[in-house]
Amino acid sequence: MTCGVEYGTGAKSSQAGEVSVLRMGNIQNGKFDWSDLVYTSDREEILKYALTEGDVLFNRTNSPELVGKTAIYRGEHPALFAGYLIRVNQLPAIVDSQYLNLFLNSHVARKHGNRVKTDGVNQSNINGEKLSNYPFPYCSLPEQIEIVKLLEEKLSLVDQMEQEIGFEIRKAESLRQSILKKAFAGRLVAQDSNDEPARLLLERINTGKARRENGKTKLRKRNVA
What we know:
Elements: E1 5-7, E2 19-22, E3 27-28, E4 31-32, E5 38-40, H1 43-49, E6 56-59, E7 61-62, E8 70-72, E9 79-81, E10 85-88, H2 97-104, H3 107-116, E11 118-119, E12 124-125, H4 128-132, H5 141-184, H6 198-224
Parallel strand pairs: 2-9
Antiparallel strand pairs: 1-10, 2-5, 3-4, 6-8, 6-10, 7-12, 11-12
């Protein structure tokens, strides 16, 4: 499938520095999330592990359900990659990086990964050798590019649907809170002028509760006496 794989840097990162270091937690749904980063200023590390646009990174160690997740680096910001990630070095003249990324995130690839992964305590691993032997569905480069185009169109529709569903869920939750607020404020339905105000009802309930508690206290005192 590839012409080689590279493991990321094992050096310790910092909360500040010159270049960001992408970790396994930065891979979300086949893309990189840039909201939670660590950094390095080590020039040797930067030269050795610097990413170039189109690099595909594979998460080799994670929980059983997340190991094998993959994302493509699109040159958004200068970055390195950490040790739990593997850079897949494919030949651009033979394999399109977007096609490779989509395949590695597919059900077929994840199913194969589940078969070959090594399981530990709450953690699974897929090493570089196993990754290199994935059953890659090769076709010509023009075909790969066309497949990517078609898939991206379909996936963009899925993303749009997810956003719309998320909006409707938030809208429904907001409506729910509004209904509850109106209900407890006595504004959910038209009020009868002869109805007892909710404030007075609550005061009466609290007064009755206090009397009952007071009565129980007096009864306990008499029993003790």
